[in-house]
Write a structure and sequence with these properties.
Two copies of one chain form a homodimer. By secondary structure, chain A is an alpha/beta fold. Chain A contains 15 helices and eight strands.
Amino acid sequence: MLGNFSFHNPTKLYFGENSLEFLNEELPKYGKTVQLIYGGGSVKKNGLYDEIIDILKRNGKTVVEDSGVMPNPTVEKLREGVRIARENNVDFLLAVGGGSCCDYAKAVSVSVNCGEDPWEKYFIRFDEPDCEILPVGCVLTMAGTGSEMNGGSVITNHEQKLKIGHVFGDEVMPKFSILNPKYTMSLPKRQMVAGIYDIFNHICEQYFSGDDDNTSDYIAEALMKSVIRSSLVAVENPEDYEARSNIMWSATWALNTLISRGKSTDWMVHMLGQAAGAYTDATHGMTLSAVSLPYYRYIMPYGIKKFVRFAKEVWCVNPEGKSEEQIAAEGLEAMKDWMQKIGVALSLSQLGATEDMIEGIADATIILDGGYKVLSRDEVVEILKQSL
Amino acid sequence: MLGNFSFHNPTKLYFGENSLEFLNEELPKYGKTVQLIYGGGSVKKNGLYDEIIDILKRNGKTVVEDSGVMPNPTVEKLREGVRIARENNVDFLLAVGGGSCCDYAKAVSVSVNCGEDPWEKYFIRFDEPDCEILPVGCVLTMAGTGSEMNGGSVITNHEQKLKIGHVFGDEVMPKFSILNPKYTMSLPKRQMVAGIYDIFNHICEQYFSGDDDNTSDYIAEALMKSVIRSSLVAVENPEDYEARSNIMWSATWALNTLISRGKSTDWMVHMLGQAAGAYTDATHGMTLSAVSLPYYRYIMPYGIKKFVRFAKEVWCVNPEGKSEEQIAAEGLEAMKDWMQKIGVALSLSQLGATEDMIEGIADATIILDGGYKVLSRDEVVEILKQSL
């Protein structure tokens, strides 16, 4: 734990099969007009929408509808949400859905009382909010992004072919999040495993950086091991409550800043995946899985000690009689086997990307410097080619 | 992660060599009169007292002295602290020291505006606070109790020979805690290792209970492994900043409720140790280490699967060709080796306990039901005899 850092995460989590009840405890703390944010019709089909409307009504709230939040929320949708909030003098934003709905709610929350265009302010200039922030609550229906307990928000601009994330401070984190693993069971399997890989990669992004002996790395390994074990149960039986609950809880702790304390972090897989996502509009987790192995194989020599530790601690690779390179490579092979078993995308072409997109995706890839190797543009192109 | 639970931990942590600077950011949030809580003279000797007085003065605070907090804060001292706070209309309690100072500050915080005697109300009847709670901040100088990020407070009543802990809710948790690993370096080695064992046992108490596949258990193993690795470095070289920082950070996360989410917990080692502590006034961590192995050996058959997992995951015991009992026993032997290496007490007689105290300690031992075996009083006596 080298360096100076702070940790402050005031989001209150309610977890479990009966966690929705606690919405009744939280709602009285906020104003009368609630903007109800959700995606397509799935929350209507599974009855959650009706349950929540009922709780809101019983708590005397005026409900303002804001539906149609897409998997990668767009800047146009964000502007619409801000308009809805302003026109209705909304007091509280309640997001019901996956990470996209939470991300979107946070982006709306910092934009309602801000005069400027939010895309320019928050996603191009990365300004901090200097206006009143609306409070946000989340009812989570998909495990993956960790958005339920952090200040992150990713918005896509199709016109500019950009998908950019801004990690806001603790004042933008949801005031509370309700996590019921049962809600995640109605998801199609493909979305479940995309979420699982998203979780796993969040951990990798924070793990594959730095080489000190850091408590955060031990916790990262613990979360990876729990996700691996539970994901193998969940792909066999998506109704396994214990597995789904471990996955949901691990997702939250994988990206609420805990495992990045006292260390540097990488995030290049996200930069590559998000750039590819802006071109293909593919599911976030699948874009990450498609570029991960080519990226990690490429940077392995520059962070060999961590890749050896990863192989031994996470994948139980027996190191006896093997070189560091062999141990590390076996770790990545074990990771690939697991990715195949759970069924995530292993190439960008599976997601609709084509050779002619490579240069454009490379242009859209923001190059960060926290990992074991700062990539050149040529190296980005090379990794993307190997990901095709 | 079975069952329903919540997680809310609003304490803001500032960690690192420069973390004291952030006291300047926090102090303006609170009122003018600050009760400065500390123990003996060590913070005066190492200069920390002067630094803090200087910061308080520069922030325009009126300082009310409250020194002499002992390692096991007594009910008499608590009553004195409450009197000081009332007489001076104190607005804010700043604890500078180890867990005892934080525990004591929290006990004062819930008692100043409460009419009743705090011992009866909080430590005998376990009432919740129904009066205004004073805000508390901590500057931590010893790693161990986790008091810096939880609502726990342990108070000793020598007259009644009772040492009782009350875990208060999130409104009693410190508003902020400042964690500088350098401050822990001035401690005598014996206190350092007592703190290390306290941390390790906090994790064990939450780990050795339940048998589901739980993310919390993976995180518990991660914290144990980090503490074991760093403790062996720190006993060789107490000035190793990286080791001391990992220990300090692990201590906080070992007891801020994270690793008990979604599972049952034991806490019988603490019940036995605290009862022994009320008789011997020995350092908390040492009373825990003295009773741990006899207790775990005794309950091992009732939770054999977890003890096997402990042996394999935490101590890397090779399970090949061995029975579950052999694997589990080897795990506890490895734990004993580590305890010997770091130099914690392995018997109560080392701490001044004698045979004639056994019955009294057994009487003072509160028997809990969260572990693998609910002990009878005879079993408590047996375990205490084996701990002598």
